[in-house]
User: What shape does this take?
Amino acid sequence: MAIQTLFGSLKDDEPRKPEQEEEALETSRGFFGRMKQAVTRTRENLSAQLDQALSFTRTVDESDLEDLEAILLTADIGLSTTTEIIGRLRERAKREGIESGSALKNLLKQEIKSILDDVQRVVRPPSTPPEVILMVGVNGTGKTTTSGKLAAFFQSQNRSTLLCAADTFRAAAIEQLEVWSQRSGVPVIKTRQGGDPSAALFDALDAAKKRETQVVLVDTAGRLHTKAGLMAELDKMRRIAQKFVAGAPHQVFLVIDATTGQNGLQQARLFTESAGVTGIVLTKLDGTAKGGIVVAIAHELKLPVVFCGIGEKMDDLLQFDSAAFVEGLFN
Assistant: This one.
């Protein structure tokens, strides 16, 4: 079976040595284990309630679906998404004759995975580098930290990377990114605090072209004097990127703090409308029982979660995988 990710695939016809097969298997086990650990609090909240509500169900009826609806809402899947899921389950229960709580639970897993898979897409790097990725989001979500972790991730994929410190508004944002630059060994292009972020972006893109760098990660401001000012600045940076690099920005990652739940979803709506978001990076997934927000984002915004943060270490950033996430929620 081909291993498919958001950033490419390993084809079946690419032969691998036995030691490579074993290494891939261990990597897969480790990944699923880390994802399962990341959603522990959500799983404990969700599965305990599901087991209590459905363990003695002999025939699925409307009261079971009502109980299930209330349980999904507590996981912060959201009213709109929950209503959609329950509607699908109701139809399938009638059509397929579901007669047990375990069968209903399996259908629920299928429906959640289907919602997540519908928005996933494989991203191919541009034929002519650099690939420009804008990191956007409000202050406090972990945007700068995530930029540093992503830089380390791309470096580990043997893709040369450059950081751009374009958050010139927040005090110490540039210094924070410099720390991550030192940790990851990824160079950073910066300007002074209070300087023009678009100028920093111009310098970074110029440097990336001269150095033939493959990826440029741009840490943008999370707050200006007004929301209108923030969005205007992001729009200006998009225009500069487009003029300097064909097709740029190639991706716009919105960083959301998972612990904010539905408030994070409101942030996502604002940035999606104004900044052309292509994917979500969900931080602090390990610190919340509201991991269901992943499903709400996929259903309501039609956006994939591309990475999730699960800790403070350099490698505590996982590529999102729908199968691992769903199994982590229920297993």
Observations:
- The first strand starts at residue 3 and ends at 5.
